[in-house]
Amino acid sequence: MPYIPHDGLETAAMLAAVGVERLDQLFDEIPPNLQVQDMALPEGLSEMALRRELEGRALSNAPLRCFAGGGAYAHHIPAIVWEIAGRGEFYSAYTPYQPEASQGTLQVVYEYQSFITRLTGLEVSNASLYDGASGLAEACLMALRIQGGQGDDKSILVPENLLPSWRRVLDSILGLQQIRLVTVPYDRVAGTLVLPAEAGGAAALIIPQSNALGLLESVDALTDWAHGHGLLAIAVVNPLALALLKAPGDWGTQGADIAVGEGQPLGIPLTGGGPYFGFLACRKAYVRQLPGRLVAKTVDGQGRTGFCLTLQAREQHIRRGKATSNICTNQGLMVTAATIHMATLGGRGLQQTAILCHERAILLRELLAVVPGVRLPYGGSFFHEFVLRLPQSAAVVRDALLGHGLLAGLPLTDWGMGEAGDLLVCTTELLEEADLLAYRDALTAVLETL
């Protein structure tokens, strides 16, 4: 993005408009220990001298081996992905309202939808949502429309072991629409959901796979329970894990009705908290309730293959009261990158990546299980995240491991879950066996000194 300077008066006016006095107040959510306090640069440097100065400062940044997950994952992104996505034809493209001028973008989005339907085992995919959490809120609204939830009692069954950040988004979006979120508890020993005693007139049951503790749920039993009580089953899934796990469309006797998730593991870098994109797929019978945008393949008057937007139930095209959603523009760049990523790796490449993530999680879990004082509170199956129970505060241990060049995981107490020593640990294909051994040795040393 070009640098556009502002003078002092313009800056003061903008700060007053947003209600703050200083520029640094805009970044107060960043912990003080992560903020650079001495970024004073010499005056009057040339571009070449300034670059040299900044490159020198960058060398002081110690690289961290990342074992943190919890909804955002560090994966390898082939160089070709953003080399192509960064081309002007894709990078600056916005909404393909004119199919005659947007065939390239429309074809990419169509291919993306095809990939998502293959991963989820469902018949229809939209052209993305802003992120997984808001996508789940859209899936819940979709379920209420399908079920005719127009009465006073509009409710969704929400697992207690859903990612807490996602639950907060549901509270924000659905709570303002008088939709009740009924919590389904999880077994504190097993870490997985307990089947509810009754449905209570809800429209749908949300089924996370994996849950916030990294554990795999009994998705077949949960899906069949939902359908047996007249509920829709909404699957919340990691797209990379679907290269290894059963597709939502095959869950239970009839399969899940809607699948939603965060697409960040598919070629999207972890850059300052984003960007993200949400994917959503469903059964063909529900396509007219699908939020966002849908690209279709067709032929023109001369019989040539073409692509176009279809079933455009958006606010720009129909009355607002009949619109399903206006959340859909992330396909402009994020979905383009994800499509290139999936096409580059292919089905086998995605599967091999998922296998590496899983195998390294198993190995790390075995290595850490024998560290004195460490326990494994949950014995169930997992994909690439698991919980350690440490003899000391997980937050204290995590901070100590930063000194060893390790971002060791996420303390569950930050989410209001688990015990003080519970640390959620994640592995991906970026971590080699040497990294896992380094984690074991560093954790052993830290626990001996605390």
Mean pLDDT: 91
Based on helices, strands and strand pairing, what is the structural class? alpha/beta
Biggest β-sheet: strands ordered side by side in the sheet: 2-8-7-6-5
Q: Termini separation (Å)?
A: 46 Å
Main sheet characteristics: 5 strands, mixed
Contiguous uncertain segments of 5+ residues: none
Number of strands: 14
Question: Roughly what percent helix?
Answer: 25-40%
Q: Please provide the ordered H/E string of secondary-structure elements.
A: HHEHHHEHEHEEHEEEEEHEHEEEH
SS strand fraction: 5-15%
Explain how this protein is built.
By secondary structure, the protein is of the alpha/beta class. It is about 35% helix and about 15% strand. It is built from eleven helices and 14 strands. The chain has helices spanning about 10-20, 45-60, 80-85, 90, 105-120, 130-145, 165-175, 220-230, 335-370, 395-400, 435-450; strands spanning about 65, 125, 155-160, 180-185, 205-210, 230-235, 260, 280, 295-300, 305-310, 385-390, 405, 410, 420-425. The strands form five sheets. The protein has a five-stranded mixed beta sheet with strand order 2-8-7-6-5, with helices on both faces. A three-stranded antiparallel beta sheet has the order 11-14-13, with helices on one face. Helix 3 (about 80-85) runs antiparallel to helix 9 and helix 9 packs across helix 11. The chain is globular. The mean pLDDT is about 90.
